[in-house]
Design goal:
CATH superfamily: Hypothetical protein
Shape: globular
CATH architecture: 2-Layer Sandwich
Number of strands: 3
Number of domains: 1
Structural class: alpha+beta
Largest sheet: 3 strands, antiparallel
Order of helices and strands: HHEEEH
Strand order of the largest sheet: 1-2-3
Distance between the termini: 15 Å
């Protein structure tokens, strides 16, 4: 997890509107998720916790729900990492 990704997560918690696909890519990659390219969507998975996965469309503008889910997924990752220690 990078400092930039942590800051981005806090910004997304405060405002879930007007984010771009590239912002979500930075968030996911900053927390160690791997992005695989599929057909019209990309698949996001965490290598240490395979249950943490989602899909993202390749649109530049995203619906608010994608950002809300990204925040929840990263929070779940942080929770699982704490339990692992």
């Amino acid at each position: 997890m990078t400092a930039k990704a942590e800051k981005l997560l806090e910004l997304m918690r405060n405002s879930r509107s007007n984010w771009k696909r590239s912002d979500l890519d930075k968030l996911y990659e900053g927390f160690g998720f791997v992005i695989s390219h599929g057909g019209s969507h990309d698949i996001i998975k965490h290598p240490d916790f395979p249950i943490l996965r989602t899909t993202l469309p390749r649109h530049h503008e995203l619906a608010r729900g994608y950002v809300e889910y990204a925040v929840k997924l990263v929070d779940k990752l942080l929770e699982l990492q704490q339990g692992k220690k």
